[in-house]
Specification:
The complex is a heterodimer of chains A (352) and B (265). Chain A is mainly α and 352 residues long. Chain A has 13 helices and three strands. Classes of the chains: A mainly alpha (352), B alpha/beta (265). Strand 3 of chain A pairs antiparallel with strand 7 of chain B.
């Protein structure tokens, strides 16, 4: 019995070793590498796995180099990082709100980002207010701003001497509706061509993603993953009712606020890079939780599983049909039945 | 005998309503104190304020002479453990993990789990007799087992002050005795200081050294069970017509309610 709770100790640093969650992460990392290689192999210029690995390690012909490093690697990495960010964001939200429905999709963060980005797309096109570089940088920046505004608005409106999960989900659904309708309004008033471009962005697409999309998400993850993992230590003790958590020595509101802001930024940055890819943030933590057999979504596990999920969905989106589909269409098709399952399933909570 | 926990002209309110009204209380180290009183008399509220879960409107709570709301939350949690009345845990949490959360105040992000933690968790499970349930999930336990799991968590926290809010609620009599025997053992063998809210007056009389009777947010009587549990007090505080006889087993006061069926005309 004690063996299941062995401590790993290095100097003053010591962690708990849990076999199953660690196995899940290890297997998922192998899968991640495999999907990354396959994703780079597939396309108009098919490459073999050997060619891909060789090229990634600096070999290969000049053509292979171009196809891999300029076209397919940035796209695959964007998918990986966006998936990881969405997975982590969802895991934090679900752990704090203690509700599997809580995710940036449901809480309005991704739709807020969508509204921000679509305003730039529609105003930059035929109206010519924003053009050229401004438009290409403006879309992700506006997405980021929109997501932050929506997320912080939900947070502020749901605040009554503290954050209560259920109220936050309800407020989030309201903000989602507002942001969604604003987006549809923009699409109606906008130029047809702009509306077309905006629709692809809204669906969530990895098409044509380059290094300029990889860098911001990578930076956000480099900064925020350690913050989340450090703060995640508190998440375990935040799992209870407020009184029990406070009794364990946690400043409940401060800890919750910090983690929610981290989750909002992660989701906004991811959405800014690839559009609101549906259901990833909602489903990933629950998949990771079931695989790892833990009571709360495992943070690092959710990062890796999210990466695998988005890259795999993108692979399907690119190959299933003659023309390429946006990745968000695939995740939506997979995710919609799952959302219905969540809504139908009654939630039990252990109480004394 | 030193004062560990002290309320000094403490008032607590929700909105307009004052639930605890300028109350003074001293909890002596190494004793078991039971707080009794009718529903809504403020006993739970008092316990929460003693565990700094509720802010004082005026007055103060002092933990070992220091004002509790000026102490770091973590420092308080290393000295004082609190078991709320109806704690809730996420679905799927195992008993071992629940109890392990009690170690939180002793951990840091770089020291999330040490052999001390493992030893404390094993000891806490052992003490409440639920070692064999360690890998079960909390939601599949019976009421009595679940309450023991929560008490284990409070024990794993390793505090020598424990505040228990109605630890026997929802339990059948045998399990109530189990839980209170455990409280007694913590007190007797480890010298812990315990403050608990109890509904059952006879059990309070048996297991507490000191009884505090509350009504309308104030303390109306306190002292040994023999001093506090009198027919006069029961009528004043609970509005209950009752006889007080000697408990044939423990020799403590035993409250026997009269009730309308047996009231003499």
């Amino acid at each position: 019995m004690t063996t299941a709770r062995t401590a790993l100790r290095v100097g003053a640093v010591s962690f708990r070793l849990r076999r199953r969650p660690m196995t899940v992460v290890a297997v998922a990392l192998v899968l991640l590498a495999a999907v990354l290689v396959v994703g780079i192999m597939v396309g108009d210029f098919p490459l073999t796995a050997v060619q891909v690995v060789d090229t990634l390690l600096g070999g290969g012909t000049r053509r292979d180099q171009f196809v891999v490093t300029e076209l397919r690697l940035p796209r695959a990495l964007t998918g990986l990082l966006v998936g990881g960010a969405l997975g982590l964001s969802g895991a934090i939200f679900q752990a704090i709100v203690r509700n599997p429905l809580a995710s940036p999709d449901i809480l309005g963060v991704t739709w807020g980002a969508g509204a921000g980005a679509v305003s730039v797309i529609t105003f930059s096109g035929s109206l010519g207010v924003v053009t050229g570089t401004a438009a290409s940088i403006g879309v992700p920046l506006a997405g980021l701003a929109g997501g932050l505004v929506a997320g912080l608005l939900v947070y502020a409106l749901a605040w009554r001497q503290g954050i209560e999960g259920f109220r936050m989900v309800l407020v989030g659904i309201g903000i989602t509706a507002v942001a969604g309708n604003f987006t549809h309004y923009l699409l109606t008033v906008g130029d047809v061509q702009d509306a077309g471009r905006a629709m692809v962005w809204i669906a969530g697409s990895l098409n044509g993603r380059g290094w300029e999309h990889v860098v911001p998400v990578a930076l956000a993850l480099v900064v925020l993953v350690p913050v989340a993992l450090v703060g995640g230590h508190v998440l375990g003790a935040l799992q209870f009712d407020d009184q029990t958590s406070r009794g364990l020595g946690i400043r409940v509101n401060a800890a919750r606020s910090l983690l929610i802001v981290v989750a909002i930024v992660l989701a906004s940055v991811a959405t800014a890079a690839a559009g609101p890819i549906a259901f990833v943030a909602l489903a990933t933590p629950q998949i990771a939780l079931r695989l790892a057999g833990t009571a709360q979504p495992p943070l690092f596990g959710s990062v890796v599983v999210g990466g695998v999920l988005v890259m795999l969905s993108d692979l399907v989106a690119r190959t299933i049909y003659r023309t390429e589909l946006p990745v968000g269409v695939v995740t939506a098709v997979l995710g919609a039945p799952y959302l219905m399952y969540l809504l139908v399933r009654s939630r039990r909570e252990a109480r004394v | 005998m030193s004062v560990r926990l002290e309320a000094s002209s403490l008032s607590i309110g929700y909105g307009e309503r004052l639930v605890v009204d300028s109350l003074d209380l001293s909890v002596i180290g190494g004793t078991v104190t039971a707080v009794i009183g009718p529903n809504g008399c403020g006993k739970s509220t008092l316990l929460k304020a003693l565990g700094r879960l509720l802010p004082a409107r005026s007055g103060a709570v002092l933990l070992d002479g220091k004002q509790i709301d000026r102490m770091a939350t973590r420092d308080v949690a290393r000295v004082l453990g609190m078991l709320p009345q109806a704690p809730s845990a996420p679905e799927g949490l195992t008993v071992a993990d629940l109890v392990a959360r009690g170690r939180h105040p002793h951990q840091a992000w770089y020291r999330q789990w040490s052999s001390d933690d493992a030893a404390a968790v094993d000891a806490a499970l052992e003490m409440t007799g639920i070692s064999d349930l360690a890998d079960r999930t909390v939601d599949e336990l019976s009421g009595g087992q679940r309450q023991r799991a929560w008490i284990s968590m409070a024990l794993a926290q390793g505090t020598d002050l424990l505040l228990l809010d109605e630890p026997t609620t929802y339990l059948d009599l045998a399990h109530q005795i189990d839980v209170l025997d455990l409280v007694q053992e913590l007190h007797a063998s480890m010298g812990r200081t315990i403050v608990m809210v109890l509904h059952d007056l006879n059990l309070a009389a048996r297991y507490a050294d000191h009884i505090v009777a509350m009504r309308g947010g104030r303390i109306v009587a306190q002292g040994t069970p023999g001093e506090v549990l009198t027919e006069r007090m029961l009528l004043d505080v609970f509005g209950l017509d009752a006889r007080v006889v000697e408990d044939p087993v423990a020799g403590t006061p035993l409250v026997v309610p009269v009730g309308s069926r047996h009231r003499l005309p």
